[in-house]
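@channel anyone free to eyeball this complex?
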Amino acid sequence: MTVTIKDIAARTGLSITTVSLVLNNKESRISSKTRQLILDTAEELNYIPNQMAVSLVTKETKTLGLIIMDIANPFFAELSKGISAEASEHGFDIILCDTGDSYEMTMRSLKVLASKNVDGIVITLSDEIREEKMELLADFLQNHTLPVVLIERADRLVMSDCLNVNHEKGSRLAAEHLLRLGHRKVGCITGPAHLEATGRRLKGVMDVFAERGVKFRPELVVEGDYHIESGYAGTEKILAADSSVTAIYAFNDLMAYGIYQCLKDRGIRIPDRMSVVGFDDIFFSKMLYVPLTSVALPIRQMGERAVQLLIERVANRELPRRCDVLEPRLIIRESTVPPCPADPPDRKA
Amino acid sequence: MTVTIKDIAARTGLSITTVSLVLNNKESRISSKTRQLILDTAEELNYIPNQMAVSLVTKETKTLGLIIMDIANPFFAELSKGISAEASEHGFDIILCDTGDSYEMTMRSLKVLASKNVDGIVITLSDEIREEKMELLADFLQNHTLPVVLIERADRLVMSDCLNVNHEKGSRLAAEHLLRLGHRKVGCITGPAHLEATGRRLKGVMDVFAERGVKFRPELVVEGDYHIESGYAGTEKILAADSSVTAIYAFNDLMAYGIYQCLKDRGIRIPDRMSVVGFDDIFFSKMLYVPLTSVALPIRQMGERAVQLLIERVANRELPRRCDVLEPRLIIRESTVPPCPADPPDRKA
DNA sequence: TCTGTCCGATAAAACGTTTAACCCAATCAG
DNA sequence: CTGATTGGGTTAAACGTTTTATCGGACAGA
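replying in thread with the prediction:
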């Protein structure tokens, strides 16, 4: 049936030790004649080593676990791409666990991965996993001493390496761009208030305004939920608060699309009468009828870096804890221009 | 370090056989007292079975391989979601191999998966893999008798189950919709001519025209490459061939976006002056400024069905070869309306 | 001729399970 | 009282590797 190291030994009349030695080319003290003989018959018989057996004795599987909240979400798909590519580069395979954002599924995946003896795990955690749940999760990891890198979540409970994106910096880029263009009345449509990322992004904006001595207007900040509809609704609220706003910064691109729709319905032209900035720079933002200026996260690099951190730790568990932060960049497109003068007559010439 | 079945045996003073029997609850002839004792200590010690060891003897890993061309592509991400969900449902995990469309990587992945003893594999193949390459691949599969289901590719070389989407039917839906609305001059922007899917989609359109006795105009068919730019260029060509065309059907949504841009630049309004139909119904099509009518593929179900087929075959390798076909549906939105009368004066009232 | 080094290769234990075969005592039918 | 049955376990082999000793011989030096 399946050909094993034994078959090769039998076929060549050598011992399985010799065969194993040659196939892993350890121990140089094997005559090149024997060596070639073994290599040839292995080739001929289409020998493929049984990793189960190998792992059983070596204690390493060359497999990494990937616990992801939703593989169909472009953000995570891109992250997975980076992770997969980098892992493959280093000879690791990955077991994909899509948790659909559920805590139970996360724990189940963790057990499965431990059971399958992965060498390490990259985890993205739902925002719902906190307090008691987080504690249980941390216990499990501690218990099984599995190398882990946490994506977009630093936590004192889990003493693992982690990898974050600089949300604050991203917002700073957006805000600085807008101020530099001359905008002073800027609306913000944020993410859900309970998310850490929301707070950090908001801080970025406020800091920039403060540093530049521009008055920040809290009444122009409305909470969104990352869906397109809340971008639409948010725009209406902002306009109701102050119809002379000249720019709106949405905490993700989807909500920026909502802004586009609302402005279209109201006959307010982008970018002439309103500049718009998004966050995430998803694929479609570049092909809107007015290509969107957006803060781009280095998602793929994040995946790659996560695997690098993980593999380093697999190789050396005694490393001190590391917490990397990746920097976003601003992609400037056509949705942002200097504000149109409040009273057109002034510069009519 | 890690706790094994042996530790439990030692702790309880029983044999490892007994422990194994209880933990897998086979053999009912174990006293419930012993049973409980074992279960309790297993719990207490946080015992997690070593799947390597289990698989070594049982010959099954409860793991499926997934060879995918590009996980960052929304189509494949969605497919993976379906696959992952269904697999998880049945207690299987999946090893993800992103081949980046390369033949070499595909073969490498195949070897890795064989080596890791997956129970079966779901494969998507690059269109470049044909003839000699296909033969090598088929040989490998035959050689290792791995259960496989092939996605979107039937091949007499690989005697595996396969799963396809009914491209012809998808095109028929689009064409019928357009004809029913009254369009007679319809342009088509196809995919690359060498792809099977392109031929099948084109056939669907032509058949419908023939059946309804409407003259099909080959000069209104232009070849695209699934990228947005070719949608733009294709539109220009079609308009050059006959400026009185009233509808364009693009073989994917991205090219439809190109149509939108071109028409916008030329001041031709959608849908008043031109109806547009796409294919794929990707996420963003519903949020274009004129939501796009598009043929939707049941991608997630495809993934689910693939896993069902695979698991059935894992359970019974003697099953006859199966080849399922899933049906697309037409999502009608605002980009398609009856054609505007050729000579407005006629019906001016 | 004896001792010590190399060289080339092997024996056997170990990894953590499953499972077929077997064992012992107690119970039961006759 | 005997022989068969049953309840409750255990022994040991097997899965396919890796790896640590170990072995036998050839050859060199004394």
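from a first look: Chain B is about 45% helix and 15% strand.
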